[in-house]
Specification:
Keywords: Metal-binding, Repeat, Zinc. This protein has 5 helices and 18 strands. With 235 residues, it is mostly beta strands. The protein has 4 domains: 48 residues, no CATH class; 45 residues, Wheat Germ Agglutinin (Isolectin 2), domain 1; 56 residues, no CATH class; 60 residues, Wheat Germ Agglutinin (Isolectin 2), domain 1 (2-Layer Sandwich).
Length: 235
C-alpha cells in the first residue's frame, strides 16, 4: 500500500524508507518504513499505521480485543506511565499506550544465550527475584519485562532494547546543522570526543560520512531533550 490517509492531513501519506525520523504517534526515532505527509512532512511508522487501521487488535496475554481511543487519558498497564490516546479493552480496564503496544514479543541480549520473551506478569513471588539481571536495580512486578524461562533471567524492557530500539547502525542521519550526511555508529574502540559536549563517544553516535572530516557527536546530543525523556521510561 503506497498511500494512506490520515485524519489530520489533507494530503495522502506516501510510503518512504531509509530515512531517520521521529514517529508522530509513538514518538520513537526509527529508520524503518514510514508514511510521510507531503504537506506538513510529519511521519508515522508502519507499526502505528497498521495499529491504527480501524478494527480490533490483540495483545500479549490479554484475552479480549483492544480498540484505540484517541481521547483516552490515563495510565498504561504495561509501563505505568500517563498517556493521551491508548488501546483500551471494552470488557475490562486494560490499557496500552503506543510505545508498549509495539514492543517486540521476543528480543536478543548478551545477558542470556536464549531469546528473551516479553512477559506481562511475574509468577515468582520471592522478593530477591524482583531485580533486573542487567542493571541489578529493582523491578516493579506489575510492569512488563523480558524473561528467559530456561535461565530464569528477568530484565527491564529498556535495559534490553535501549533508548533507540528501531534504529539500524550504518543508516544516514541528515537532520542536523552539519553540512555533510552523518552515519549512525556505535564505537567499540578509539572513542573520539563529541564535537558538542566534549565527552568520549562511547554510545550511539553520528559520524561524518566524509573520511577527511572528523566530525562526530553523540546521538543524544542531537536528539531533542524532551524526546529523550519521553523515550526513556523505567519499568
Amino acid at each position: 500500500m503506497k498511500n494512506v490517509w490520515h485524519e489530520l492531513c489533507r494530503e495522502p501519506l506516501a510510503l518512504i524508507s531509509d530515512k531517520v525520523f521521529e514517529c508522530a504517534k509513538c514518538r520513537h526515532i526509527s529508520n524503518t518504513f514510514a508514511y510521510e505527509c507531503s504537506e506538513c512532512e510529519s511521519k508515522r511508522c508502519l507499526r502505528c499505521v497498521i495499529a491504527l487501521t480501524p478494527g480490533a487488535r490483540t495483545s500479549l496475554r490479554h484475552e479480549h480485543p483492544l480498540f484505540f481511543y484517541k481521547d483516552y487519558h490515563g495510565r498504561c498497564d504495561a509501563c505505568g506511565n500517563l498517556t493521551l490516546g491508548a488501546f483500551c479493552c471494552k470488557d475490562c480496564n486494560f490499557v496500552l499506550h503506543f510505545g508498549c503496544f509495539s514492543l517486540p514479543i521476543t528480543a536478543h541480549h548478551k545477558c542470556d544465550e536464549h531469546l528473551l520473551s516479553l512477559t506481562a506478569h511475574n509468577d515468582n513471588k520471592y522478593s530477591e527475584s524482583h531485580y533486573c539481571d542487567i542493571c541489578e536495580e529493582s523491578r516493579d512486578t506489575n510492569r512488563w519485562f523480558y524473561h528467559c524461562a530456561i535461565c530464569d533471567t528477568s530484565v527491564h524492557v529498556n535495559c534490553v532494547l535501549g533508548k533507540y530500539p528501531f534504529l539500524k547502525l550504518g543508516s544516514i542521519f541528515e537532520e542536523t546543522d552539519h553540512p555533510h550526511p552523518l552515519t549512525i555508529v556505535k564505537k567499540k574502540y578509539y572513542y573520539l570526543d563529541c564535537n558538542k559536549c566534549g565527552k568520549p563517544c562511547e554510545d550511539l553516535s553520528l559520524e561524518c560520512s566524509k573520511l577527511e572530516c572528523k566530525y562526530i557527536v553523540h546521538l543524544d546530543c542531537v536528539v531533542h531533550y524532551t524526546l529523550r525523556c519521553f523515550l526513556w521510561w523505567r519499568m
